[in-house]
Structure to design on (370 residues):
């Protein structure tokens, strides 16, 4: 893994771009498997916990990037106070738990990058992804693996070139996520209008560096 | 690439995005963004007040919403913003009255025996409260020696 490598840019279906200009997906590939976090990553989580207070949580939604995700959630039919944006979900967990708790190397890297930048990140198992990542609407009759029934008409999904890998800002398809045996991991950042490209690159770089920390 | 082209055709057909309505949807999304900004500012200014409802019923997603659904989201957001403004205005009125009470209480504690005003009553964070109490217990109560005592700190 080279943290200096430029992120790969994914595709966005024209129907999505037409409705939501500024939407995008980019990713970096890092080495797995994701075991226990090294001391440097756990220390960084502790330092972030010390720096992150209630005031940050209260004013978070006024900051441009978290606000941009909240707006996008509303525009695609989600209530960000029920289905929380990734950064707000982490902020809430921080306030409830009294700190950012270490879970595993990958989750911790995503927490660090998300809290530092506000960008929404998620991960997939590289070996379970065919081709490039993208964002599109579900086709009629299409299903999400591990979830009963067809996807509702016009559902927005993150997909590879063959099938949906997960709902956009929602569940990941069964078997497409990362587990303890995953050899290569794709860390993906979902961009929405109002989130600058440099923030996407910084988020992916931060997560890559954290995954490389030993 | 062929797969992508087919997929985009499917997208176009399945969501049935009428071009005539696109500008209307763009405008509605702009209004939703503006209302979300207002709601975010209200959320920050409302802290630490509690018992304010922030939920806005979602249309159900994630998906590309149609014109009617976007209008519904916009209207619900606008209603929520109006509700929160009204609640905060009520809070502000009560808090102003409580501040006036506190000032009078500090000036003349004997006129406000046993009255207690907390930070929450005046819209401030923290657990401090002002309590009009007699100096030296029963003796002060009988002699009419009253004072306002400030207690601070939240219980563990």
């Amino acid at each position: 893994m080279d943290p200096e490598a430029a992120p790969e840019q994914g595709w966005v279906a024209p129907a999505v771009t037409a409705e939501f200009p500024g939407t995008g997906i980019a990713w970096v590939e890092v080495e797995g498997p994701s075991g226990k976090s090294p001391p440097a990553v756990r220390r960084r989580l502790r330092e972030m916990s010390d720096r992150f207070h209630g005031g940050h949580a209260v004013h978070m939604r006024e900051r441009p990037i978290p606000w941009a995700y909240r707006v996008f959630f509303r525009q695609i039919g989600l209530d960000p106070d029920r289905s929380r944006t990734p950064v707000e979900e982490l902020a809430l967990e921080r306030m409830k738990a009294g700190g950012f708790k270490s879970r595993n190397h990958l989750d911790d890297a995503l927490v660090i990058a998300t809290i530092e930048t506000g960008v929404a990140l998620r991960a997939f198992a590289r070996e379970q992804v065919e081709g490039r990542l993208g964002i599109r609407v579900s086709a009629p009759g299409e299903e999400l693996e591990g979830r009963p029934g067809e996807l509702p008409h016009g559902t927005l999904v993150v997909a590879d070139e063959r099938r949906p890998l997960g709902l956009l800002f929602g569940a990941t398809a069964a078997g497409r996520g990362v587990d303890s045996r995953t050899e290569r991991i794709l860390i993906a950042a979902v961009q929405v209008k109002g989130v600058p490209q440099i923030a996407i690159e910084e988020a992916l770089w931060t997560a890559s560096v954290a995954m490389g920390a030993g | 690439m062929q797969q992508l082209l087919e997929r985009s055709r499917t997208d176009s057909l399945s969501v049935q995005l009428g071009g005539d309505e696109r500008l209307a949807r763009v405008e509605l999304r702009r209004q939703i963004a503006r209302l979300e900004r207002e709601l975010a500012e209200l959320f920050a200014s409302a802290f630490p007040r509690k018992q304010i409802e922030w939920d806005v019923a979602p249309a159900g997603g994630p998906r590309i919403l149609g014109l009617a659904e976007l209008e519904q989201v916009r209207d619900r957001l606008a209603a929520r913003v109006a509700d929160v403004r009204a609640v905060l205005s009520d809070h502000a009125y009560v808090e102003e009255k409580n501040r006036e009470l506190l000032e009078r209480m500090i000036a003349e504690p004997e006129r406000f025996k046993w009255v207690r005003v907390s930070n929450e009553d005046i819209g401030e964070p923290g657990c401090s409260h002002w309590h009009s109490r007699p100096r030296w217990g029963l003796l002060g109560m009988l002699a009419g020696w009253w004072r306002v005592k400030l207690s601070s700190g939240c219980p563990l």
Observations:
- Confidence is low (pLDDT under 50) at residues 4-15 of chain B.
- Residues 67-107 of chain B form the longest helix (41 residues).
- The beta strands of chain B are 116-118, 129-134, 146-151.
- The radius of gyration of chain B is 27 Å.
